[in-house]
């Protein structure tokens, strides 16, 4: 995390982005700090940092020298994003019982308004309308069928119990 923030970059295996056309559409990267790695250090868990993508390229893992690879072969393809600057969200997007295993995609509109990770999974027009209406009345709960949002399907949107 520290190296990504200091060097203004993010990298992920190319295989995590199954639709390669998305690469040309991505504008921002956000970093999810998981309970597994950050709760013990008393860091905030959830999405705190995000940054606008300045450029990206596909490289072999061995070419990423800022963070040496411990597990992946040097010829495995990665996407490296150059980030203009990392910013801190005013309100951290909390896990709310969910997490991100590898990578997930969302719109900037949803990202700017999300309070919990599950909200980033909202996609369809019907889901968004229900979410907006419910959010105006108070707190929202997005029900997913799995813990990790990158594997999950939205099962419903409702008002969250106080």
Q: How would you describe the overall organization of this protein?
A:
The chain is of the alpha+beta class and 162 residues long. The strands form two sheets. It has a four-stranded antiparallel beta sheet with strand order 1-4-3-2. The chain has a two-stranded antiparallel ribbon with strand order 5-6. It is built from four helices and six strands.
Key terms:
162 residues, alpha+beta, four-stranded antiparallel beta sheet, two-stranded antiparallel ribbon, 4 helices, elongated
Radius of gyration computed on alpha carbons: 17 Å
Low-confidence stretches: none
User: What is the total tally of β strands?
Assistant: 6
Largest beta-sheet characterization:
4 strands, antiparallel
Rounded to the nearest angstrom, the distance between the terminal CA atoms is 34 Å
Instruction: Choose one word for the global shape.
Output: elongated
Beta-strand share of residues:
25-35%
H/E element order: HEEHEEHHEE
| Oligomeric state, counting identical vs distinct chains | single chain
Question: Number of helix segments?
Answer: 4
Look at the helices and sheets and give the structural class. alpha+beta
Q: Widest sheet: strand order? A: 1-4-3-2
Give a brief description.
The chain has 162 residues and is α+β, with helices and mostly antiparallel strands. It has helices at 2-7, 35-38, 108-113, 125-137, and strands spanning 9-13, 28-33, 46-60, 77-93, 140-144, 154-159.
List the topology elements:
Blueprint: H1 2-7, E1 9-13, E2 28-33, H2 35-38, E3 46-60, E4 77-93, H3 108-113, H4 125-137, E5 140-144, E6 154-159
Antiparallel strand pairs: 1-4, 2-3, 3-4, 5-6
């Amino acid at each position: 995390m520290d190296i990504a923030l200091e060097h203004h970059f993010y990298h992920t295996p190319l295989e995590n982005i199954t639709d390669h056309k998305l690469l040309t559409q991505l504008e921002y990267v956000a970093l999810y700090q998981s309970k597994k790695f950050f709760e013990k250090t008393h860091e905030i868990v959830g999405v705190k940092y995000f940054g606008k993508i300045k450029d990206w390229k596909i490289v072999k893992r061995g070419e990423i020298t800022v963070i040496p690879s411990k597990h992946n072969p040097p010829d495995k393809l990665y996407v490296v994003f150059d980030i203009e600057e990392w910013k801190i969200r005013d309100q951290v997007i909390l896990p709310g019982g969910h997490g991100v295993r590898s990578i997930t995609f969302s719109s900037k509109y949803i990202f700017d308004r999300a309070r919990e990770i599950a909200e980033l999974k909202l996609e369809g027009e019907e889901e968004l309308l229900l979410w907006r209406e419910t959010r105006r009345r108070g707190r929202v709960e997005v029900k997913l069928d799995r813990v990790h949002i990158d594997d999950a399907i939205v099962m419903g949107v409702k008002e969250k119990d106080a």
